[in-house]
């Protein structure tokens, strides 16, 4: 479902670099005031994600609705009306990801040990970033097909770049929690800086990992 | 009718009637149904006889193979015990005790020095004839000086500004008294402190554990010197003294010291016996009097410092001080001191500043005390000025004209020798010289005893020589400034020596530590290979291995013992024999695995769950290298456990069967939410401040439970049994003994639990006007009933109980079909459709093993929950619920072969250790739990109660381990016992890995600043948890499986 056109190729390669670059450029202010920066960064990330999704990713709805012939078309050269439709789809995906993904991720992060009375805006923004990074491309690609989402949740989906990035973001956020308890007294240990950094780095690494392991399915037992 | 016969083909008749006892009175039905079969009675009799013989043979075989499994785990436990013992002997420091005594007639200054008589003072002219030494246990320095709050107004905390007299006198008439912080050397337990206060030397860590059984001091000490000088000693108070100095006191009134619930008995005893002796008529009956009050300490333990009881106790002590100074004569020295402080919630044992900072007040009517220039008023805190506790020993000895005890390392307290004008530097220099010379003397004999001439000795000796050189000038011509300089050189010498000694006694026996580490690491590898690296059924293999391992152990032990006589090692014969036995057993194990190399498989994980099991264990092991991770272990465990349940939630969506999917997902959510909720119940350790808020007690400066947690207990008593029941009704297993355990014992036991803690709170808070004695009796009786129900009745009945089964016979209108059975799914009972309209259902067949085996954790939960404080009891309920959720997650996702089950179960136990108000620190130990069912200490019961409180969660988790392999497993599946063995081995492997990691890090970081605060306590916790889970695993876990299999086998036949 990955578009192979020229522009798309460029966006696809530039995308993780731009994401990480943005985070790197704003890192100091992120450390100084996490919620403000996260709020400012959110539209930027959303923009980058939408551009990436609408240029590089195929939408399964378009594919399903227009049949095999159109699917071939949509995955070939990017036409302007397709681009418009793609942007619309990606906006819808954004709404879904933010509306459903953010509360779900918020609950999970709190259950994993985030403070429950303090720093709620930090946690909520962290959840929003996670759902935009990991959720938006997934919703864009798979929409709300029950069986696909069952596969996504149960790690049963064959690996690809989108899925790899999403899993990478989640794992990165998980590993990001590890340095928090250390008594190094660094400002960047502030909640949720390490989580956000881990999430972005994990997303970039996961994209590559998804390419390397394409088609593979994880074994639980 | 043939079908019914089929069912009973291998079932002894008496069992059939057993079932019917619980059934809906269908014995007659059953009889009618089998009427036709009875016609073939003779054939059946023959068949039954042969089947019975077969059955007996099978039972015998099972018993033998099971005993071998138990033996194997016993061997594992033995090897680990040896490893821990060897490491501990090298790691926990020991000090060589010299038995020389100082003599009145032998001055350390050598021949020609001042030598007085006993009447005038041995080495130095004495100042006082008599002394009254009063210890107010846990009298922290800030209790004794005026405290102000943030606004400058007097502090209103219950523990401030009550004990005023000492401070007032020290300020008003400084020549009569002085008050100063009095710094204890850790560990801050009373026994250790008394040793330090009387011998003047440093206690080593090894002695810390002996707080429950005081042992006599065989070093030179003040009491011994008093005895040798023919002085009469009188003692009243804490009975630790009589344990330390048996037969030394001429008058003694010891009182039980460990009952922390009792605030008054000891104190009243001291007050009653002290004042008559102080009366002038009795003055000839004593020279040296010791009174030891415990009320303040017990108020701290029981309620925490911020409680009205603490204020009342301190006020009582203040009045005592006023009465005491009125009663003593002019020639009597009065010393009032704390032996240690207390932490913010009133406990002690560790080395935090608040625990170390006691108070010292010396008083006499003679007016001989002075002040060091610059410290005219009592210091505000220890940072300003403080005195070490060992300094009391030379000070008392010289003031009373006794020789300084031989092993003393302290120096004279300047205030007592500098004179009222603060200018008698010559006197101070002289006493400092005496002390330093004795210390030099001691150092020489210690070095001689150790055959040790390292360069550090000469450094201190040089300091001493320098000081002596300064005295070569004619003493008459020396100015006070010169005396002062001399005194300061001696002081430096004393401090330097103390430093050297601390360093010297922190010397580890690296060989012994290394032997321990080798044993532990190999043991971890062996149990890992056994539990995860061998394919196929483990049951038969275990017996085969057990024999070889024991043979290897015996041979190795003998070899090690013989090796001792070769003289090639300095280690004692016990250590060598132990190491030999462990090494022999392990070698035998690895040699045996080589013989079955075909069955070996690689341990490296390939699936998500096995990677997780390994990752969690390894991450946890690695994190003990950092003190901050160790400090935050509670949060980290919560993080891991919720991560597991999140992944389990995801995995549940792979299940095709919607019922299984729903079950797995919902139980994962329950598991996740309970983990997070339980993490709110915690008691922060000092290092977690200020990022942590304790919730375990009513407030941060208290050790009383909040009323909210009592309400929670009643809520649990009502709501929890139905929850447990719901895990049984799913498979229709709520039959027979399950009804008794859950419906009766658990229901009433939990109510009693709540009642006990209500009475306890009523007792603490004096809510109701009932005499304490009868309240106590009621409380103790309830506790005893619950404990008997849980540990006696629960275990005995478990050995005899039948499986949780019943038979339901229905008359169907339409004959049931195979499809009907299928749709009911896995949790449905096994159904046998009669060919006619009659069908018989065995209820509870789907979870035949698991439902019965889980009865044991249920009854143990009841007892272990009682031993926790109310919030801890609630946490234990959450733990049991989480174990049940874990069982369902493991079963519905088909993970019974995966290592994740036992690893998560073990982590649950560790996590709830923190949720029940414990931490890996000495001061968080809840000693008072020993007094829940009784008033007195009676070994071994008190020790068991203590272990039940301290490691209750881990014990409960260990008992539930076999159920992991049995829950909802097909009753007649072959190799079930082998699965149990595998699960148990994995569980032990987890704890062994954790313990070994703590050992490795403690050894590696043995010079780390945080060794005694963080790494050493964590190592002790890891080692003890490993040993306890080993023991519980062998005695309870593995044994419960035996009864379970036999009981199930009696009904359905044993399957090997």
UniProtKB/TrEMBL annotation, chain A:
<dbReference type="InterPro" id="IPR009580">
    <property type="entry name" value="GPI_biosynthesis_protein_Pig-F"/>
</dbReference>
<keyword id="KW-0337">GPI-anchor biosynthesis</keyword>
<feature type="transmembrane region" description="Helical">
    <location>
        <begin position="12"/>
        <end position="31"/>
    </location>
</feature>
<keyword id="KW-0812">Transmembrane</keyword>
<dbReference type="Pfam" id="PF06699">
    <property type="entry name" value="PIG-F"/>
</dbReference>
<comment type="pathway">
    <text>Glycolipid biosynthesis; glycosylphosphatidylinositol-anchor biosynthesis.</text>
</comment>
<feature type="transmembrane region" description="Helical">
    <location>
        <begin position="162"/>
        <end position="182"/>
    </location>
</feature>
<feature type="transmembrane region" description="Helical">
    <location>
        <begin position="120"/>
        <end position="142"/>
    </location>
</feature>
<keyword id="KW-0256">Endoplasmic reticulum</keyword>
<feature type="transmembrane region" description="Helical">
    <location>
        <begin position="85"/>
        <end position="114"/>
    </location>
</feature>
<feature type="transmembrane region" description="Helical">
    <location>
        <begin position="194"/>
        <end position="214"/>
    </location>
</feature>
<protein>
    <recommendedName>
        <fullName>Glycosylphosphatidylinositol anchor biosynthesis protein 11</fullName>
    </recommendedName>
</protein>
<dbReference type="GO" id="GO:0005789">
    <property type="term" value="C:endoplasmic reticulum membrane"/>
</dbReference>
<dbReference type="GO" id="GO:0006506">
    <property type="term" value="P:GPI anchor biosynthetic process"/>
</dbReference>
<keyword id="KW-0472">Membrane</keyword>
<keyword id="KW-1133">Transmembrane helix</keyword>
<feature type="transmembrane region" description="Helical">
    <location>
        <begin position="37"/>
        <end position="64"/>
    </location>
</feature>
From TrEMBL, chain B:
<comment type="similarity">
    <text>Belongs to the PIGG/PIGN/PIGO family. PIGO subfamily.</text>
</comment>
<feature type="transmembrane region" description="Helical">
    <location>
        <begin position="696"/>
        <end position="720"/>
    </location>
</feature>
<dbReference type="InterPro" id="IPR002591">
    <property type="entry name" value="Phosphodiest/P_Trfase"/>
</dbReference>
<dbReference type="InterPro" id="IPR017850">
    <property type="entry name" value="Alkaline_phosphatase_core_sf"/>
</dbReference>
<protein>
    <submittedName>
        <fullName>Uncharacterized protein</fullName>
    </submittedName>
</protein>
<dbReference type="InterPro" id="IPR039524">
    <property type="entry name" value="PIGO/GPI13"/>
</dbReference>
<feature type="transmembrane region" description="Helical">
    <location>
        <begin position="636"/>
        <end position="654"/>
    </location>
</feature>
<feature type="transmembrane region" description="Helical">
    <location>
        <begin position="543"/>
        <end position="564"/>
    </location>
</feature>
<dbReference type="GO" id="GO:0005789">
    <property type="term" value="C:endoplasmic reticulum membrane"/>
</dbReference>
<feature type="transmembrane region" description="Helical">
    <location>
        <begin position="64"/>
        <end position="87"/>
    </location>
</feature>
<keyword id="KW-0472">Membrane</keyword>
<dbReference type="InterPro" id="IPR037675">
    <property type="entry name" value="PIG-O_N"/>
</dbReference>
<dbReference type="GO" id="GO:0051377">
    <property type="term" value="F:mannose-ethanolamine phosphotransferase activity"/>
</dbReference>
<keyword id="KW-0812">Transmembrane</keyword>
<feature type="transmembrane region" description="Helical">
    <location>
        <begin position="576"/>
        <end position="597"/>
    </location>
</feature>
<keyword id="KW-0808">Transferase</keyword>
<feature type="transmembrane region" description="Helical">
    <location>
        <begin position="740"/>
        <end position="759"/>
    </location>
</feature>
<feature type="transmembrane region" description="Helical">
    <location>
        <begin position="780"/>
        <end position="801"/>
    </location>
</feature>
<feature type="transmembrane region" description="Helical">
    <location>
        <begin position="512"/>
        <end position="531"/>
    </location>
</feature>
<keyword id="KW-0256">Endoplasmic reticulum</keyword>
<comment type="pathway">
    <text>Glycolipid biosynthesis; glycosylphosphatidylinositol-anchor biosynthesis.</text>
</comment>
<feature type="transmembrane region" description="Helical">
    <location>
        <begin position="603"/>
        <end position="624"/>
    </location>
</feature>
